[in-house]
Amino acid sequence: MSTPPARICLIEDDEIMGESLMERFEMEGYACDWFRTGQEARLTLANKHYQVAISDIRLPDISGQVLFEELLADGMALPPFIFITGFGAIDDAVRLLKLGAEDYLTKPFQVNTLLDKVRNLCQRDQTLPGEAFVLGISSAMREIEAMLARVAASSGTVLITGESGVGKEKVARALHDLRDPQGKRPFIAVNCGALTESLLEAELFGHEKGAFTGANREKKGYFEQAHSGTLFLDEIGDMPLAMQVKLLRAIQERAIVRVGGEKPIPVEIRLICATHQDLIKMVKLGEFREDLYYRIHVIHIPVPPLRERLEDILWLADRFLDEFAAESGVQHSFHPAATQALVTFSWPGNVRELRNCIERACILSANPVLTTKDLFDQTLSSNEQEEATVGSLTHHLRTTERHYIEQALTAHQWRIKETATAIGITRKNLWEKMRKLDISAPEENM
Ligand SMILES: Nc1ncnc2c1ncn2[C@@H]1O[C@H](COP(=O)(O)OP(=O)(O)OP(=O)(O)O)[C@@H](O)[C@H]1O
Fold it and tell me: Is-above-0.80 flag for pTM?
């Protein structure tokens, strides 16, 4: 798998400066997202992984310092920040370094100096352990990756659960690849729900010549084809009860008997099962064998739905853009409003739906910058729904800002001047925000 380019978040309102930096970064092989306002950058930083962020200190809507403080207060994992300060604003820069910024440059500066710093930070990020990000950047998917690394050495049966389209097969494939990085062993995927009972047995275990009408020659089943590698049984909950007994026997005995045959054939496989169904409930209803459930449940990996791991959305979306660019030769990108819409949509069909949505937009859009309409015109039935998703984002930001300001005020005993200084805004600005966000001091502080 080729390594994706290091990603830079550039926050700069000056058109000439922004454009020339962006061009230079792209020439040097980086992927760069350029934001003109702090608010736009904030939304994306919350949901996308960058190796470096570069921000001007003076932005039209918010100071770079306030933006940085707000991001820190949101408690998210931030990339290293390099600030660009005006001449003589050393005090600002020192304050930012104390807050945790990585570095600063004073205007005018040599672009090569900035590039050196960026290069060093990107190298540092790549050397971090466990940062290969095969499945996603959310903590949930990173935990799954860490778990796969632990499980890879064993041969225990793995059960992967999760809603349809969350990437269960992708997880199974990642586990297989960990065990077989050279790609020399087979990975056989079977959808148990797609085959009838009689077909399933012959497909899984194979058949001897003459076993049934039409069996003109002997045939190896999926178990034998997967020998020395991985057999992935998707939709295991759809497997008929009679087949479940046969599967259990094959797992216990590490051998199969072909349809029409008698001789057990030993098979050495890693078995991975997956389902979107609630197997425990099925066991209680007598629809799934309890003994098989315990046999395949040795290692359980639940994959959360996409709406519960928002950080993965834009990371995946960018991967899909790169994937389709490699096919079509046209590199699309997202308009900032489209980026917001991607994050706020609930994705009931999970990663599959996200991928389809981006693929469709890449094929149909005449413009390389994809808009919300390009992505969602067919998914959302009306403008009202679109407004509703954006509305919920506004609500989220308002709630976050309110919470942050209330916390800062409480920490400073509701003293306006101190709080305003601490969060890097003027007293007037703080009063305005309090009025806008409907924040008032508790009675004991009045
Ligand atoms: N981490 C990921 N990175 C890239 N693509 C992904 C990832 N996860 C899922 N996908 C893509 O999303 C689609 C659905 O993934 P997958 O088939 O693995 O889901 P699933 O949970 O097994 O679905 P189902 O329950 O329907 O079998 C596929 O096109 C897959 O390539």
Answer: no
Using CB distances shorter than 6 Å, the residues near ligand 1 are: 135-136, 162, 164-170, 234, 274, 276, 316, 319, 351-352, 355
How many CA within 13 A on the CB side of residue 126?
11
Residue nearest to atom 8 of ligand 1 (CA): 167
Tell me the one-letter amino acid at 50.
Answer: Y
Query: Which CATH number is 383-445 given?
Result: 1.10.10.60
Strands 255-256 and 265-266 turn out to be antiparallel
Q: Which of 161, 351, 357, 358 to mutate to test ligand 1, by most ligand atoms within 8 A of the CB atom?
A: 351
Q: Under CATH, which architecture does the 1-128 domain have?
A: 3-Layer(aba) Sandwich (3.40)
| HSE of 102, CA atoms in CB hemisphere, 13 A | 17
How far, in Å, from the CA of 354 to the mean position of ligand 1? 10
ipTM of the modeled complex: 0.98
| pLDDT tens digit at each of 446 positions of the chain | 456 678 999 999 988 889 889 988 988 888 899 999 998 888 888 777 888 999 999 899 898 889 998 888 876 678 899 999 876 677 888 888 888 899 998 888 888 889 999 998 887 765 443 345 689 888 889 889 989 988 888 888 999 999 999 999 999 999 999 888 888 899 999 999 888 887 899 999 999 988 788 888 889 999 999 999 999 999 999 999 999 999 999 999 999 999 999 999 999 999 999 999 999 999 999 999 999 999 998 889 999 999 988 888 988 999 999 999 988 888 898 888 888 889 888 899 999 999 999 999 999 998 889 999 999 876 554 443 444 455 456 666 776 777 778 878 888 888 888 888 888 888 888 888 887 777 777 654 44
Count how many Cα atoms sit within 13 Å of the Cα of residue 322 in the half-sphere of its side chain.
13
Which atom, in ligand 1's list, is nearest to the CA of 319? 4
The rounded Å distance from CA 164 to ligand 1 centre is 8
Q: Determine the CATH number of domain 139-304.
A: 3.40.50.300
